[in-house]
Amino acid sequence: MSKVKYYYDPDTLSYRKIEPKKSRRFRNIALFFLGSFLFGFLGLILLLNTNLVNTPRELSLAREVKNYELQFELLGKKMEQIENVLANIEDRDNNIYRLYFEANPIPEEQRRAGFGGVNRYKSLEGFNNSEMIIATTKRLDIIQKQMVIQSKSLDEITKLAEEKEKLLAAIPAIQPIKNEDLTRMASGYGWRSDPFTKARKMHWGMDFTSPKGTPIYASGDGTITRADNNASGYGKHIRIDHGYGYMSLYGHLSQYNVKARQKVKRGDLIGFVGSTGRSEAPHLHYEVWKDDERINPINFYYGSLTAEEFENMLKYANQENQSLD
Ligand SMILES: [Zn+2]
Questions:
Q1: Ligand 1 mean position to 296 CA, how many Å?
Q2: pLDDT digits (tens, 9 = 90+) for 251-300
């Protein structure tokens, strides 16, 4: 309640009430409202700036950021799984595939190399979440590079495997005469007594004794380089060039089944046992050459013999008997 004010009126000699002016009253009321409004407004601004209260929009943005962070964490876990699988493939690649095909393992530093030089991640800098996004991008870049290197390595392995397959098909790896066609294993590679002079001399091949006309088979894929009677001692003979430095020779034949320059596959019938040239009795004289040197053919029969047969052949071939040449 406002106080009622009085003043002394000398005309009437009495105290009289002061009547407030209407205009002044209105002004006071207006000022009061203006002041309240300003104070309230300032207070609100202060309050909003102190983070004590969030607007609904801020709350929803904050929730969204939280969700991004969670999703990033999940993606990080998935990347970790991919990294583990890749590491496993790389391990097999280095220690099994590349080892088997005699290729050098690819070093870890080369497989895990990121990108050097200019800063590729400049555009990602300057945000609250820059660190997290740059780290993730770097990880993905490395994974991508790893995949390319791994893929190239497998291409190389495929090529090497094809080569190895050709090499394995080319190597003279079977016995040139069927076991059931053999009368006996006459003589192996090594020092033997010469059937003609009886002197000890090196026998450079293996002699397979079997009747005249017994089929002779190519011991590996290759090209016939010779099928003629013009080499001293061998009589009618065949030579097959297998590539990779390998050559096989078949001597003392009675008949050819192939011509020079003809391509043959392992197991193809190339001729028939005879006793032409420097020979005592029908047999096949068989030689294997590697880089222009004669080597022991017995090391190449794994393709056609059982362990027991190989054992038997080894026993006979090592007997120091007389060769048939
Ligand atoms: Zn011989």
A1: 12
A2: 999 999 999 999 999 999 999 999 999 998 999 999 999 999 999 887 77
Angle between helices 56-92 and 130-170 (to 10 degrees): 20
**Residue in 278, 279, 271, 256 with CA at minimum distance from that of residue 209:** 279
Q: Which residue has the tokens 């003809």?
A: 262
C-beta of residue 283 within 8 angstroms of C-beta of residue 254: no
Task: Measure the CA–CA gap between 80 and 83, rounded to whole angstroms.
Answer: 5
Q: Output the CA 199–ligand 1 centroid distance in Å.
A: 15
Q: Which CATH number among 2.70.70.10, 3.30.70.2190, 3.30.230.10, 1.10.560.10 corresponds to the domain 179-318? A: 2.70.70.10
How many A from CA of 186 to the centre of ligand 1? 9
Q: Where are the alpha helices (DSSP H) in 93-190?
A: 98-100, 108-111, 130-170
- The torsion angle over the Cα atoms of residues 204, 208, 212 and 217, rounded to 10 degrees, is -90
CA of 188 to the centre of ligand 1 (A): 8
Buried b (16+ CB within 10 A) or exposed e, 209-239: bbeeebebbbbbbbebebbeeeeeebbbbbb
CA 136 to chain centre: 25
Q: What is the pTM of this model?
A: 0.60
